[in-house]
Amino acid sequence: MHNKGYLYILLATFFFSSMEIALKLVVNQFNPIQINFIRFVIGSMVLWPMALRSLKAANLKLHYFHLPFFAITGFLCVIVSMTFFQLAIVYAQASLVAILFSCNAVFVIPLAHLFLKEKMTLISVSSLFLSLIGMYFIVNPEHIPNVLGVCFSLLAAITFALYGILGQIGRRRYGFNGLVLTFFSFVVGCVEMFMLMLLSHVPAIADAITQMGLTDFANIPFVKGVTWNSIPSLIYLGVFVTGLGYSLYFIAMDETSASTASITFFIKPALAPIMAAFILGDALHENTVVGITFIVIGSCLTFIVPGFQQYHQHHTHSHQYQ
User: Which ranges carry the EamA domain (predicted)?
Assistant: First the structure.
């Protein structure tokens, strides 16, 4: 049973690690907001049957009072965080975006303390500190490769971490699992984005946005660039990265555990830059390798140490009865 779970983790890790690379390959073919919308619509379709089955299995029903919650999570994830993420892809190397966005788990620590009243332990603070050192090496403030790209990557990571915190609040309040929360957040977020894309075609709004220099947000196309040549890329981004990536992650969680499945996001900051170097030719500098090492160690602290402590407690407890 666990072997199957580890296979799902491996596949989810590959799909998530290839996300920035796949987006970078089509960055010049689509409007950044448009590609964001397309991949989440396709991804939602893939998640649909599994989410409804999960909802039925848990004997839970959706009510109208759930809508404001999903409106907030959908807006924060699909529109805010993923728009920052998409803009980061435009302005920075795929490897840099992958590493910095992977640090969203680090930002969860102070946000969980602030909103969920979770204690900041020595392990969590150490993890945060090591990851921040890693980011310092990668960003290299004395020679920032692209200020806009770095800023958009960090804003995407912070807002995605906040989305994760809101998801935790929703799970506690309504009893929805991660798959159901993700699916309905995606769906409502796509509806909200569709409405905003329609508004961007209103002449007065489009002119005002253009005058502000934000041309990517004016007259956002819906199907422009969708050709026979671009369909394979869209299928990979929508079906495999967004849809199957999240599906496999949640199945892996059921097959193993939440903490075991989360190793996906600890491997990504190391794997994604290597993949970007081979596929896109992104340079892998020494400071980047040092930074990745700090981030991986910092992330693993939150995964390995609690697991070791639980094992030690169980081992000690069992010895007492021998």
Answer: 4-139, 148-303
* Residue 47: predicted pLDDT: 92
Give the range of the structural domain holding residue 232, as residue numbers without chain letter.
Answer: 2-319
For residue range 39-67, what is the model confidence (pLDDT) as tens digits? 999 999 999 998 899 888 888 888 888 89
Q: What is the pLDDT of residue 14?
A: 92
Provide the pLDDT for residue 18: 92
Say if residue 318's pLDDT is above 50: no
Q: How crowded is the C-beta side of 169, counted as CA atoms within 13 Å? A: 19
d(CA 142, CA 222): 40
Q: Place 75 in a pLDDT band, splitting at 50, 70 and 90.
A: very high
Mean pLDDT, to the nearest integer, of 261-270?
Answer: 77
Place of tokens 């692209």: 146
Rounded (5°) CA angle 17-20-26: 135
DSSP state of 117: -
Structural domains of the chain, count: 1
74-109 residues labelled b (16+ CB within 10 A) or e (exposed):
bbbbbbbbbbbbbbbbbbbbbbbbbbbbbbbbbbbb
Asked if 8 and 248 touch (Cβ cutoff 8 Å), the reply is: yes
**Orientation angle between helical segments 245-255 and 32-57, nearest 10 degrees:** 30
**Closest-CA residue to 115 (of 164, 176, 177, 179):** 164
Question: Are residues 82 and 40 in contact, defined by beta-carbon separation less than 8 angstroms?
Answer: yes
Name the residue among 197, 175, 247, 187 with its Cα closest to residue 67: 187
How far is the C-alpha of 24 from the C-alpha of 14, rounded, in Å?
16
Please determine, for residue 303, whether its predicted confidence score (pLDDT) is greater than 90: no
- Looking at residue 202, its pLDDT comes to 93
